[in-house]
């Protein structure tokens, strides 16, 4: 049975995450906070996430491991709040593997992360305001 389980932090990208948002997670957020506040939270995430992606690139270029880890952690946590499980898993992989592993081994590249964010953003806009 253990051989059938996926790796703990699989390399995730648009090809391995068929839906960018886990609907059950997003619906639970709406029920907990109310639909209007969930939409506000989504809008805040959509406004702040591009800056986080840019910050990851700057931290990578500066070889600033601590800034990279903190930013990846924030992106992971925020992503999981909305059910962006693929994006969250990718950010977690970067958080745990560190700045020097970007795009190597199982760690996604920042381009892959940005592509997954684009998928999440489109889906989240529809869910939050649809």
Description of the molecule:
With 130 residues, this protein is mainly α. The chain contains five helices and no strands. It has helices at residues 23-33, 35-61, 65-82, 85-97, 110-129. Helix 2 (35-61) packs antiparallel against helix 3 (65-82). The longest helix has 27 residues, at 35-61.
List the helices and strands and how they pair.
Layout: H1 23-33, H2 35-61, H3 65-82, H4 85-97, H5 110-129
Helix pairs in contact: 1-2, 2-3, 2-5, 3-4, 4-5
- Would you tell me the structural class of the helices and strands? mainly alpha
Q: Secondary-structure element sequence? A: HHHHH
Helix content: 55-70%
The biggest beta sheet reads: none
- The averaged pLDDT comes out at 86
Low-confidence stretches: 1-15
Query: How many β-strands, per DSSP?
Result: 0
What is the chains' assembly state?
single chain
**Any idea what the shape is?**
elongated
Note the beta-strand portion.
Answer: under 5%
Distance between the termini: 41 Å
Number of helices: 5
Radius of gyration: 15 Å
Give a quick set of tags describing it.
130 residues, mainly alpha, 5 helices, elongated
Brief synopsis:
The protein has 5 helices and no strands. The chain is mostly helical and 130 residues long.
